[in-house]
Design a protein that fits this description.
single chain, alpha/beta, TIM Barrel, 8 strands, globular, binds 2-phosphoglycolic acid
Length: 251
């Protein structure tokens, strides 16, 4: 039985002050949650204080990106060592916005995954197809390619720790959610690819989150699907009230 993992992705929202007050509120609301792993991903400037606020609570903090080198002349970038030192536990990687606006390739994302694992943090690898891919029947091919190239060279032990977030691009921030049936079917296909790469035992242990307009209203139905092990939530993670409702739906 896989434990549900609910993660927020604040994207480029939340100043440090806003992050602190949201987390203080969230921490109180979800303090009795036991059966859900709760993660909040925020911008770099909020991470250090965020980690301190959630210390000794059931919430962990994620970064939304990283550069895959330990240190050096990479002006403007943040290394895994810096994240690890302040207490970040997860790193969201390969989000479709990073693939699209910052031209991130599967091989670059693969380097980041390896760097994050090497420093003892857990990558959340985002994959997903565009609307035109879905309409042309290419969804499973796109996801398969992102998985094969993104997870290239990982051992079974490493794979077991990784979280996959399936986020159909047409559902992100659009209010359009994949129906629970469509999402389940795609999650099943994703797990089959994981099985092909890492074997059945590992694939059955791996967490596959759904992302794309998940909210308090649709969360329960999505989360009740056999292969949907949690959610990666953008818009609805910005307020403690709406985010906690999704967490309760997973409990
Ligand atoms: P959304 O974003 O929940 O606002 O659709 C999800 C994501 O991009 O991770």
């Amino acid at each position: 039985m896989r434990k549900k993992v609910i993660a927020g992705n604040w994207k480029m929202n939340m100043t440090n002050k806003e992050a602190i007050s949201m987390l203080i509120e969230l921490k109180e609301i979800v303090k009795n949650i036991k059966n859900v792993t709760i993660i909040v991903g925020g911008p770099f400037t909020a991470l250090s204080d965020a980690v301190k606020i959630v210390e000794k609570s059931n919430i962990s903090i994620a970064a939304e990106n990283v550069y895959p080198k330990d240190a050096g002349a990479f002006t403007g970038e943040i290394s895994p060592i810096m994240l690890k030192e302040i207490g970040v536990k997860y790193v969201i990687l390969g989000h479709s916005e990073r693939r699209e606006y910052f031209m991130e390739s599967n091989s670059f994302i693969n380097e980041k995954i390896k760097a994050v694992l090497a420093h003892g943090m857990i990558p959340i690898l985002c994959i997903g197809e565009r609307l035109e891919d879905r309409e042309a029947g290419r969804t499973n091919d796109i996801n398969r390619n992102q998985l094969i190239e993104g997870l290239e060279g990982l051992t079974k032990e490493q794979a077991e720790k990784i979280i996959i977030a399936y986020e159909p691009i047409w559902a992100i921030g659009t209010g359009k959610t994949a129906t629970p049936e469509i999402a389940q079917e795609t999650h099943r296909a994703i797990r089959d690819v994981l099985k092909e790469i890492f074997g059945e035992e590992i694939s059955e242990k791996m967490t596959i989150q759904y992302g794309g307009s998940m909210n308090a209203e649709n969360a329960e139905k999505l989360l009740s699907q056999k292969d949907i092990d949690g959610g990666l939530i953008g818009g609805a993670s910005l307020k403690a009230e709406s985010f906690s409702k999704i967490i309760f739906a997973g409990e």
